[in-house]
Amino acid sequence: MQNNLLSGLKEHENKLLTIWSQLLIDGGSDDGAVEEEESKEFASLFLKAAAAAEGKIQDSQEFEKVEDLIVGIASSRGKRGFSPRENAQYLITFKEAASKILSELIKDPEQLFDANLQLNAALDNMTILTFEAFMRGREDIISRQVDEISEISTPVITVWEGVVALPIIGTLDSSRTQIVMENLLQQIVDTGSSIAILDISGVPAVDSLVAQHLIKTVSATRLMGAECIISGIRPEIAQTVVHLGIDLTGIITKASLASALKTAFDMLQLSVVKRKIV
Amino acid sequence: MKSRIMTTISNSKEEALIVKEQDVVPLRNRVKEYGVKIGMSILNQTKLITATSELVRNLLKYGGGGKVIIESVSNGRDNGVRVTFIDNGPGIANVELAMKDGYSTGKSLGLGLPGTKRLVNEFDIKTELGNGTTVTITKWKNG
Amino acid sequence: MERIPILKMGDFLLVTIQVDLYDQLAENLESDLINTISKHSSKGVLIDISAVSIIDSFMGRILGNIAVMSKIMDAQTVVVGMQPAVAITLVELGLSLNGVISALNVEKGMDLLRSKMQISDNEEQDYDDDIE
């Protein structure tokens, strides 16, 4: 088993912190990048793990805590606007500081080389972890925003007793179609509306996939016993639909929301008349 | 060294023997409970249970009954339910053909396998003539 | 053996499915319903599936069968109360339930059946050359 050559660092914790802070400041991250508390916590935990380890530091129980801590630090720094580069720099300077102290502590060149190898192995892996944590943080933000966008962009409006309308703004992909369908059908049930108008004026382009999603929505509405009218067919949409050979003949389509509403009134045997002034 | 690579891990698991049609409803309910436990939406629950219903019918009709494993799984990003259907029946001679819309050897509508595949996020079929068929489906909570 | 009750209301038959269907139960419903239509010469069948949480290809086929069979026996079938999740799942599955007429709820389903019957009554009156 390899001897643990890093245990000696523990006694020089304060010195290491001083060198590390200096290196961070020299490295240009002087604008608040040096978070005293978290740096102290990290250094002390790392050195504790280093002192406790019998063989390689990575194998010790304590090291998992260090890893968890650096992941936490990296994601919180990510949220505060630090770049992944700065996060990596944070660990690289720590390594530099530790390496400096090691060269003072260990005189035998061979031992010093081994000690540096151990230090490298431990910290390089942590650098990768900070990158992963940063990416995960970003992905969480993106997926939350996607959820928010799809929620706010699918309002269902009751336009008349028995008629609901859903204006779709933006691109229709399969996950959004599912939300649109769920919202629309649930509103149909809740309001007891027998006609739904799907307005696609705000959909930038209709390709065969979007058309397929629209057809699915219409089919599901009909299965429940309601009728679905698609309105807002712009001239260029009509052109693409025909050029792509998409069959929309089974679906009631209207150019504008107004004409869709008129069709809905006809189906409900309602008529709008101008009041006569006597 | 602790591995942080995202792999699907199984959290809880149970097995059910399916030998007769009356076993189907309790099985569907168990699968539903797994979906409810991880907070799956009604729609995704319905898709998962419908897929289960289709596959368990195949298991009874073509496989002569068999074993179903229900698992709660996660891949680090999302939680899901995985259901595995194992039978010792004759197997499927041509899987590619069976996965095409409109194909069926039985008297059902012939959209069993491809339709079922559309309802779930992951669909895997292993079959060998004379050695039975194993179908594994996974539905993610947000899938 | 478990059976789904069929209620007779005048010219109509009313079926409310309150339990989760399995294949045998659905098959029994099909034959019971067709026999009852024949026994009472019913003109309409209303099937309430609002409590049904799943319909797979087999049950979908049974619903289609019932619609077509009753049509041949001169009875109109209306399926009411399908849950949104069930409708979306059926569409994804590729099942369109051809021949099945649906309505949102029991009330609308009854209206639909009555209007269908009036149309066929009118047709008979037309035949007698006796309009209004």
Strand content of chain A: 5-15%
Name the shape of chain C in a single word.
Answer: globular
Kindly state the mean pLDDT of chain A as a whole number? 84
Which regions of chain C contain 5 or more consecutive residues with pLDDT less than 50? none
Helix percent of chain C reads: 40-55%
Report the span from N to C terminus of chain A: 106 Å
The total number of structural domains of chain C is 1
In oligomeric terms, what are we looking at? heterotrimer
CATH topology of the largest domain in chain A: Globin-like
As for the number of domains of chain A, it is 2
Q: Specify the overall morphology of chain A.
A: rod-shaped
Sheet with most strands: strand arrangement of chain A: 1-2-3-4-5
Strand-and-helix sequence of chain A, N→C? HHHHHEEHEHEHEH
Counted beta strands of chain C = 5
Spatial sequence of strands, sheet with the most strands of chain C: 1-2-3-4-5
Q: How far apart are the termini of chain C? A: 51 Å
- H-E order of chain C: EEHEHEHEH
InterPro entries (chain C): Bact_StressResp_Reg, STAS_dom, STAS_dom_sf
Pfam families (chain C): STAS
Domain STAS (chain C): 2-113
Organism (chain C): Flavobacterium panici
3D structure, described in words:
The complex is a heterotrimer of chains A (278), B (143) and C (132). Chain A is an alpha/beta fold and 278 residues long. Helices cover 61% and strands 9% of the residues of chain A. A five-stranded mixed β-sheet of chain A has the order 1-2-3-4-5, with helices on both faces. Chain B has 143 residues and is α+β, with helices and mostly antiparallel strands. Chain B has helices at residues 24-37, 42-61, 95-98, 112-119; strands at 9-18, 66-74, 79-87, 122-127, 133-140. In chain B, helix 1 (24-37) packs antiparallel against helix 2 and helix 2 runs antiparallel to helix 4 (112-119). Chain B starts with 8 loop residues before the first strand and ends with a strand. The relative contact order of chain B is 0.20. In chain C, helix 1 packs parallel to helix 2 (57-72). Helix content of chain C is 50%, strand content 17%. Chain C starts with 5 loop residues before the first strand and ends in a 5-residue tail after the last helix. Chain C has a five-stranded mixed β-sheet with strand order 1-2-3-4-5, sandwiched between helices. With 132 residues, chain C is an alpha/beta fold. Chain C has a single domain (6-127), classed as Transcription Regulator spoIIAA (2-Layer Sandwich). The radius of gyration of chain C is 15 Å and the shape is globular. Classes of the chains: A alpha/beta (278), B alpha+beta (143), C alpha/beta (132). Chains in contact: A-B, A-C, B-C. Chains B and C meet through helix 1, helix 2 and helix 4 of B and helix 2 and helix 3 of C. Chain A: Keywords: Phosphoprotein. Chain A: Residues 153-264 form the STAS domain. Chain A: This is STAS domain-containing protein.
